[in-house]
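Q: Start with the shorter request: fold the first protein.
A: Done. Sequence, then structure:
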Amino acid sequence: MIEEADTNNVIRWNEAGDGFIVIDTNEFISQQILPKFFRHSNWSSFVRQLNFYGFKKGFHASAACEFKHPKFLKGRRDLLSQIKRKTAENQSNQRKILEDLQKDFEDLKHRNESMWHFQRKMMLMMYSFVSPEDEKANPPEESPSATTATAAA
């Protein structure tokens, strides 16, 4: 469909060959290009199917729709078999990965706070050893989360 000469005015590869551009969606549907290759002539269904297979939609400089997939490259038909429909298992795996990342983030936040409190404690101990003429030294500032909370308020 993309490589056919008679459709280049409606759909073609982008300049880099790492995606395709639908120049005119109305022509794409009305010229019977979409129904020739798919069981429908509905643009939204076409885009939804591309999403199921991991294609990302963007916009080309000419205001046309551009679709990309890391395994959909000009001249690389050998990669096409690696393009798979997203499954519920993939989505649940992604949810699990996201949950794990959120837990890791919360753990890192907690560790950061603990380290800050430890650092503050060490600095206060250090200040207790400073001579009276050095009392002009300032004690440590507030914790990063307290500063953020005050800045947000």
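Q: Next, the second protein, separately.
A: Sequence, then structure:
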Amino acid sequence: HILRSCPPPDLREAWQRLGGAYQAVMEEAGFDSDWVEARLAELHAEQFAAQEKQTENWNRMQMAQEEMRQYELLRACRRHEQRTARETKKLSKRHASAARAERAIGRLLRRVERLQGAAPVPRPGCPAERGKHQRPTAKHGTKSTTR
């Protein structure tokens, strides 16, 4: 099948070159130029229907290949979007997990410092106001109410 290796415009050019060469050879051989042109027109008419059918098949094949390329590109885009969504979700979970861990560590540090009587560690996002979060301590010379 010639159209697999030669697209229709190239095939038309090749036919014209072949016809020109055929006409030149036949006229050199002594044939009448009118007869040669009539013979070429006859050959062209015989092959025209077959060439049209081949051209239609070639066009269909080209369109099918283009559709397949577009489909494969669409599938690749969807796979990339799904992979990106999965990675984003994983990163979001890791970030949330890290944030929870940071808050838990902050709570533990504040508890330890409160138990040790040191100044508290300010909470993230809160103004560092000394003494606001400290536990009141018993002053010297006062009696404790607990027994």
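Q: Describe the second briefly.
A: The first helix runs from residue 8 to 28. The mean pLDDT is 79.
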